[in-house]
Amino acid sequence: MIQIIAHRGASRERLQNTLPAFQRAIDLGADAVELDVHVTADGTVVVHHDPLIHGTSTKPALAGRPIAEMTTAEVASFQLSDGSAIPTLAEVAALLANRLTLYCELKGAGTARAAIDVLRRSAVSSAVHAFDHRMIAEAAAYAPEIARGVLEVSRHVDAASTPRAVGARDLWQLVDYIDESLVREVHAGGGRVIAWTANDPDVVERLASWGVDGLCSDDVAMVRRVLGR
Description:
- This protein is of the alpha/beta class.
- It has one domain: Phosphatidylinositol (PI) phosphodiesterase (TIM Barrel, Alpha-Beta Barrel).
- Helix content is 32%, strand content 22%.
- It is built from 9 helices and 11 strands.
- It has helices at 19-28, 72-76, 89-96, 112-121, 133-142, 161-164, 180-188, 201-210, 220-227; strands at residues 3-7, 32-39, 45-47, 56-57, 78-79, 101-106, 126-130, 147-152, 170-174, 192-196, 214-217.
- The strands form 2 sheets. An 8-stranded parallel β-barrel has the order 1-2-6-7-8-9-10-11, surrounded by 7 helices.
- Helix 1 packs parallel to helix 3 and helix 8 packs across helix 9.
């Protein structure tokens, strides 16, 4: 069965990468969520897309400072546009445990080991992926038991070689560069193809017909409808 992966939670309906977005993904019947992580100066893994926080802090002097330069308490002082706080990876893992798979994008520099340590301590089914394939190679050496993936925008001549080079299972491929031959190549190499970001019903239907393994989408309800689930 094709996995329906809520991109940064149910981001079509809730503010992305927040606990309400992840809870809504559960409510909508997603199989998994995808999220982004950074590490604070004192070592807490937090869930946010950008290195800078798009929110309002009770400490105005923190505005514009990168997450990597702030403490956990300083990050917690921010309020996002929906009124929620920036969640920690541990909080999200606890919410999803025994419910959904957690796909963790290693966004900030040096996040691989810190994020893996959190995932190891949790009860959630998980995997990590990144645009920086060096972090996936590091994850493979540090925690070979945790599944891994590589993010790609371009279409490589030998698509299966990209994840294989760093011991990854999943090829996270931009939908614009997926065709049936890519799916065949990756499957023949023992890997899986996860399409991102699949927000158009016709594209979802076409990708499903080619046999992709996962559909990462902002619109979980639409994907469920197209797949007849």
